[in-house]
Amino acid sequence: MATAVKRKTIYEEQREQGVTRREFLKVATAITMALGLKLKMVPTVVHAMETRPRLPVIWMDFQSCSGPTESFIRSYQPNMQKVLFDMIALEYNGALMAGSGTAAEEHILKIMNEYPGEYILAAEGSLPLLPGALTIAGRPAEETFREVAAKAKAVVAMGSCATWGGIPAAKPNPTLAKAVTDFVPPGVPFIRIPGCPPIGEVMTNTLAHIVIWHAPEVDELARPGVLSPPAARQMPTPPVLMLVCTPRRLTTRVLGKALAVQARCRGPMTYNAARNCAGTGA
Fold first, then answer.
1. What is the DSSP letter of 185?
2. Could you tell me where the DSSP H helices lie in 115-243?
């Protein structure tokens, strides 16, 4: 039977590494500023780091180009180093970890058994239903995902492939690919962070939000509400000069709203998670 292991808080870990109280407060202040919070929120961040352990994260890559991972490590505010070393414990990521093979797969089981209901499952890429299309350690990827997700605190779908199916799910969809959110077990909350690739700061801020408070509230599409306000989704599309892609040619036209929506290039709806991306269509 899985038994949760008591972990040291972020502050306790830093004290063991020789970090002084003054240095710790500097780190907490830097994280507060990086998250775009007001200085009056520093005590809240300090309290979270004093009382909570680093957040275990299992990051799994399925039918993906690894764009979300690339975007994550290039996050600027907060940067990846602050999130990795001060807020989360990235226990598994096939692109970033040194281990591989049996040792890596056994480590996933170790985290699942030691921290049931406490770790975050970050997933990028779609999942195929076609038998044999994608396996992990000899097992269907869908089966592995369901097993890891069942014990997770929450699932965070990173990127367009994980959130909506992306390119692998496009017609004719030879692998019968679907978004990972279609496979999340009942009762397990999930968050969508779309984009191709997703915005690095949205990913790091979402994880930091979970560490300091809880999982952020989501909108009607399960995106972090604080990072995808209604204005970004409902902004009317003015006539603009842009490129229109068609199966036969690439032409430049002046588009209005109706034609833009029909061409699926720009429109009043966007699946991205940022304030100024109402025309991306990502």
1. P
2. 141-150, 160-164, 200-212, 230-234
Q: How far apart are CA 209 and CA 178, in angstroms?
A: 28
Q: What are phi and psi of 185, to 5 degrees?
A: -60, 150
In the DSSP assignment, the letter for residue 11 is H
**In Å, how far are 77, 101, 218, 247 from 272, measured between CA atoms?**
18, 34, 13, 25
> Of 2-6, 120-124, 212-216, 246-250, which gets the smallest average pLDDT?
246-250
CA-wise closest residue to 125 among 182, 70, 62:
62
**Residue 117 neighbours by CB under 8 Å, 6+ apart:** 4, 151, 152, 153
| Per-residue DSSP letter, 147 | H
Which tops the pLDDT comparison, 234 or 156? 156
Domain range list for the chain: 10-228, 229-282
The architecture that CATH gives domain 10-228 is: 3-Layer(aba) Sandwich (3.40)
Confidence at residue 101, expressed as pLDDT on a 0 to 100 scale: 83
**H/E segment holding residue 34:** helix 21-34
Q: Partners of 88 in the beta sheet? A: 55
Neighbouring C-alpha atoms within 13 Å toward the C-beta of 158 = 31
Q: Using CA atoms, how far apart are residues 120 and 153, in angstroms rounded to an integer?
A: 6
- Alpha-carbon torsion, ordered 214, 216, 217, 223, to 10 deg: -150
Mean of the pLDDT values across residues 249-257? 40
pLDDT at 178: 94
Rounded to a whole number, what is the distance in angstroms from the first to the last CA of the chain? 43
Q: Which residues of 131-158 are buried (b: 16+ CB within 10 A; e: fewer)?
A: eebbebeeebbbebbeebbebbbbbbbb
